[in-house]
Amino acid sequence: MATCWQGLWAYRSYLIVLLLPILLLPLPILVPSKEAYCAYTIILMALFWCTEALPLAVTAFFPIILFPMMGILDASEVCIEYLNDTNVLFIGGLFVAIAVEHWNLHKRIALRVLLLMGVRPALLLLGFMLVTAFLSMWISNTATTAMMVPIAHAVLEQLHGTPKDIEEGSDNPTFELQEPNSKKEVTKLDNGQATPVTAAPSKPKIQKTQEEIRFTQCMSLCVCYSASIGGIATLTGTTPNLVLQGQVSSIFPENPNVVNFASWFGFAFPTMVILLILSWLWLQILFLGFNFRKNFGFGEQENERKDAAFQVIHREHKLLGPMSFAEKAVTILFVALVLLWFTREPGFFKGWGNLAFPNDKGESMASDGTVAIFISIIMFIMPSKIPGLTQNPEKPGRLKAPPALLNWKTVSQKMPWNILFLLGGGFALAKGSEKSGLSAWLGDKLAPLQSIPPPATAFLLCLLVATFTECASNVATTTLFLPILASMAQAICLHPLYVMLPCTLAASLAFMLPVATPPNAIVFSFGGLKVSDMARAGFLLNIIGVLTITLAINSWAIPIFDLHTFPSWAHSNTTTQCLLNTTTPGP
């Protein structure tokens, strides 16, 4: 009997893939309508995404097969969703992020900030959290964590080392930047889940006091949590943000580009700052206690260890040498990209997009994706060294041109193509829900929720999404929830962004489990943490996050997105009554 169960478990993925489509067949057979056909596709894909019986990106291709066969959408209409404007923004943003990583600019920024912050316990925690959150705003959460964790452990080894270690001041091999092909690997599941494969190699451990162990745990968690928190601040910081932008554009094609880089930053950046500070205070209280005087290093007699830890950071920063031409060029292009994003169509004044490239309505015809691709192409053109006549060391007597800032080989190795397909699958599902009438049907069924106060609705939905994202990919979570939330908002005459924005942020609150998100898995693979440690710290942090998001959506988000009215672009056949009075209060 035991062998039978073991066999079933070993072949569980095959069984799920074969049996689930058959078990769900009664739905389209007994209810032969387009709504039921679309529901069948969504339920099947949701179960495959949750069980991971197939790779998430492979499941995302199902609409290309099922929607044309079921008469929901033409194949040409489905396929165009896999490379829409949001996916182009994703590609362009990643091109720039790959260039930043390729030339080690992110490591230079990290070390410089840590030198400024110092090594007192509380300030050291804050320094690592600020650096990790800032980098995570622009490059992937996974890459940021993979770089910051070895730096944190190297500093901790000096802080907690023996006097002999301090006198020797030896280099720490764990400090080196972890590359994707290094021995320490993480099974990455589409930017949403990950499983540690092998722990990072480490030297024989010395006996640590309970206080040192707790500080090590606190430092590890502060890195992975701040990577997840930092990603919410920018539109390209983490994939769920782009899912929201794409879903809003797909479900509400008449919207005046309401979710763009500038509007998102105005809403999410203050949220990120508040959540980061609260996380810093909570981790201090949980792992270091209430003795803030000690946490800030006043009256301590461990200056030798602190100096040694500081020297580790200073030595590694010095090894980077002066900024190269490539680093300066990438920095200038990166700053130019951010400025162009902010000033394209800010909303409170006419941006360069409105003035230089307006359409019939005065809106910018150039999108954030246009800007990202423009800067990326410049990186493929610009040389990484000042052009000059240099000899080719491999072929004496021949001249060699310097390589460009970015090349396709580097891009193809580091680009997460699976996320691109996963995004496209989500947009195809949203389009299918709209065309089949499933969205309108769901809206009718959710109409009784109108009796619940909007703030309570948003709070409960955030809790639901934050719980769900602990077990499923954050991309899959937002892909499944956002179309339903849009239908619900239309049914109860509530601004769609009032529920879609907070739930998108809540999808990034994966703090409790190592498999919830890649940063958690990377930190867990380095050792020193138990699942219970992460769950204990992450549980209250999830609550803090939901409360912070609820505060944001009921305060400064209202004027940014005009949430107090039901917008004309959100109308449908079932929401005509909402438009009779366009000043109907939202939240």
Automatic annotation (TrEMBL):
The gene is SLC13A2. This is Solute carrier family 13 member 2. Residues 183-203 are annotated as: Disordered. CDD domains: SLC13_permease. GO terms for cellular component: apical plasma membrane. PROSITE patterns: NA_SULFATE (PS01271). The keyword Transmembrane applies. It comes from Urocitellus parryii. GO terms for molecular function: alpha-ketoglutarate transmembrane transporter activity; fumarate transmembrane transporter activity; sodium:dicarboxylate symporter activity; succinate transmembrane transporter activity.
